[in-house]
Design brief:
By secondary structure, the chain is an alpha/beta fold. It has twelve helices and 15 strands. The strands form four sheets. A nine-stranded mixed β-sheet has the order 3-2-1-4-5-6-11-15-14, with helices on both faces.
Length: about 325
Amino acid sequence: MITHNARPFIRGKVCLITGGGGSIGSELARQAAYLGAAKVVIADIYENGAYDIAREIGDGVEVEIASVRDYDRMNHIMTQYKPDIIFHAAAHKHVPFMEQNPEEAVKNNIKGTDIMTALAEKHKADCFVLISTDKAVEPISIMGASKRVCEMMVYEKAMKSNHTKFTAVRFGNVMGSNGSVIPLFKRQIERGCVTVTDKNAERYFMTISQAAELVLCSAEIAEGGEIFVLDMGEEVRILDLALKLIRDAGKIPYKDVKIEFTGLRQGDKLNEKLFYDFEKRQKTKYDKIVRISGSGSEKLHKTVQMLYHMADRADRDGIRDLIIKFTRGELG
């Protein structure tokens, strides 16, 4: 997979990246600028990351401090820059935090996507790409379920749009991203004790640059309504990753560095899946990118409105019950 193949698609375009100061967003900004985007617009509520990537890239980058939860603010940004391509990376992604604060997953992940897809259609953007996650497949976590709802939103918007190609990209854990396990393990190795949830827990891993390449190349070949998935090989056992990092640090596992098993947290799985059983995989021109058809639900609009109402009332138990049942097809 070669990012350069996306150059004709990106060159001369205005690219808006929500969450552009984050790990994936900043790499997308970096690569879009490298590929010749006419302008890269970073929209992020957190100023520090946006400041760093803007300073790194320099000319051709605009920073707008804004929340995707604010329709009027994002509408103003869309009116000002008229982006051709929107990469929607803004989201709450930490599983434990979203278990504790499910209303924020609804307000930020779902409502933010709802707002951005509506604005993409209103302002006739050429392409809208949602950054999703393998945790959206048969979700047991609030974060994963919120992303599954977003995938459905993007699909249904694609079915109705006359101009914008709406698509989604689904991938696993990103090594080195903010809050990822590898930086955590390295800090813990320094302190002499590494914590692993379960000795059999496994995850798919990819690098930040691979994730950005997947997003850019997927946008290039998008037709609308599909989900793109990167072939990441086999899952990696988290314990094996911890052992390797300990040895790479010149230390002996269980002797120089203890390993403690803390148990799976609420919302954690032993193993992740990249596909639902009903999703049929199709090859693309890129060996490592698979296309699957998106899917929606006739109950989506009603369920989303109920979730918004529950979030406004901070009905956490109601949100948990509804969003998990809906995304797992268990609503009567």
